């Protein structure tokens, strides 16, 4: 298609972090859903950015569905990990889920990881550097990674993040 080469992106993170809202905002306006509801299981979607055609696996972040994430590790050419920057109490849970993912043998070693410090518009949101510290991102050695503050409601930060990802995939 017009979007160029196809790449599979896995979108994970805790429930309510803003994964589905992020993906909606990355789609052309005419294809965006008005209402976003909590994801049940997962959804497959697509958008085009940076000369690539992204097929996105939008996983549910709810506890009972998190075991589904690993089913898509073998196909994932990139991962977007979304964090609610204002959800300080669950940062440790997000870190545990990240550590579990990073230790999984089916996740490709060179797969780039884009972290979105989402909901940066909320007054109590932590800065991206603080999220990076809480998740111990500096300890990630094998994967290229980047963290970008985002607001999925306005789209702020999303293009910058996805362009970084596209640069790692070209
Ligand atoms: P699950 O599908 O349950 O895993 O959640 P999700 O990560 O897909 O979250 P979803 O996109 O459904 O968003 C959850 C709620 O957060 C919704 O009410 C969104 O409108 C809201 N939200 C998402 N991104 C932002 C943001 O950047 N800022 C603010 N203020 N709210 C956001
Ligand atoms: Mg969702």
From TrEMBL:
List residues binding GTP: 13-20, 61, 118-121
InterPro entries per the UniProt record, alphabetical: Arl6, P-loop_NTPase, Small_GTP-bd, Small_GTPase_ARF, Small_GTPase_ARF/SAR
Q: Does the keyword Metal-binding apply?
A: yes
Where does this protein hold Mg(2+)? Answer: 20, 39
One of its GO biological process terms is:
cell projection organization
Q: Where in the cell is it found?
A: Cell projection, Cilium membrane; Cytoplasm, Cytoskeleton, Cilium axoneme; Cytoplasm, Cytoskeleton, Cilium basal body
Protein name (Swiss-Prot/TrEMBL)? ADP-ribosylation factor-like protein 6
Task: Please tell me the species this chain comes from.
Answer: Raphidocelis subcapitata
């Amino acid at each position: 298609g017009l979007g160029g080469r196809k790449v599979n992106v896995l979108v994970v993170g805790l429930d309510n972090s803003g994964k589905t809202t992020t993906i909606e905002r990355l789609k052309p306006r005419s294809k965006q859903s008005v209402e976003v509801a909590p994801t049940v299981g997962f959804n497959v979607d697509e958008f085009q950015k940076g000369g690539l055609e992204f097929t996105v696996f939008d996983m549910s972040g709810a506890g009972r569905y998190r075991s589904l994430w690993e089913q898509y590790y073998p196909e994932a050419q990139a991962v977007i990990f979304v964090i609610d920057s204002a959800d300080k109490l669950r940062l440790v849970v997000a870190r545990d889920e990240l550590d579990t993912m990073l230790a999984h043998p089916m996740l490709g070693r060179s797969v780039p990881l884009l972290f979105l410090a989402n909901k940066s518009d909320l007054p109590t949101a932590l800065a991206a550097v603080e999220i990076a510290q809480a998740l111990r991102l500096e300890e990630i050695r094998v994967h290229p990674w980047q963290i970008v503050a985002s607001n999925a409601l306005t789209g702020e930060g999303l293009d910058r993040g996805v362009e970084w990802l596209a640069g790692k995939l070209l």
